[in-house]
UniProtKB/TrEMBL annotation:
Keyword Transmembrane: yes
The organism of origin for this protein: Demequina activiva
The keyword Transmembrane is assigned to this record: yes
Lineage, uppermost ranks: Bacteria, Bacillati, Actinomycetota, Actinomycetes, Micrococcales
Keyword annotations: Membrane, Transmembrane, Transmembrane helix
Protein origin, superkingdom: Bacteria
Protein name per UniProt: DUF3180 domain-containing protein
Residue intervals passing through the bilayer: 12-32, 38-57, 78-103, 115-136
A Pfam family that the UniProt record links to this protein: DUF3180
Length: 158
């Protein structure tokens, strides 16, 4: 399994932001009324991040020898969950930012301003989810030395 890196996360986030911005612009020009992002969406993003951190902490304890009862397969599944949480968070963050940016021309209109603010709050909640996924994935890494180095790197013994 490859570790998370910033390049694919940034690429996915930017792609979702651009796509959401374009779709929002097309829909508004077509006469659609933009909808508020519900507060429950924000709560679910934060809850998913918190749950991922909780599971990641279990793996961290397992790797430090404090939780020997944890199954290795479960630890691997939690690492995959952490990566998925980071990717889903960055997609939601990009989409929420794109949605808000697609409406920013209507900032002077009160109801549209509320929609933009709800989209920005959703982006913040998704940022929390993304950071939680990244942190949990880092906790799931074994060791910290030569075991984490990519194949063929200088840290690998000859």
């Amino acid at each position: 399994m490859q570790h998370l890196t910033w390049r694919p996360l940034t690429t996915v986030g930017l792609a979702s932001a651009v796509l959401a911005w374009l779709l929002t612009g097309l829909m508004v020009r077509g006469g659609a009324t933009p909808l508020m992002v519900p507060w429950s969406f924000d709560v679910m993003c934060v809850a998913a991040g918190a749950a991922t951190l909780g599971f990641g902490w279990q793996v961290r304890q397992y790797l430090h020898g404090n939780r020997p009862s944890l199954d290795g397969l479960r630890a691997a599944r939690i690492a995959v969950l952490a990566q998925a949480t980071a990717y889903v968070g960055v997609i939601i963050m990009g989409a929420s930012l794109g949605y808000g940016l697609g409406l920013v021309d209507d900032w002077g209109h009160g109801p549209r301003r509320d929609v933009i603010i709800s989209a920005l709050v959703a982006a913040g909640a998704a940022l929390i989810m993304t950071i939680a996924g990244i942190v949990a994935e880092r906790w799931c890494r074994h060791g910290g030395g030569a075991d984490d180095a990519p194949e063929g790197s200088a840290a690998e013994p000859a």
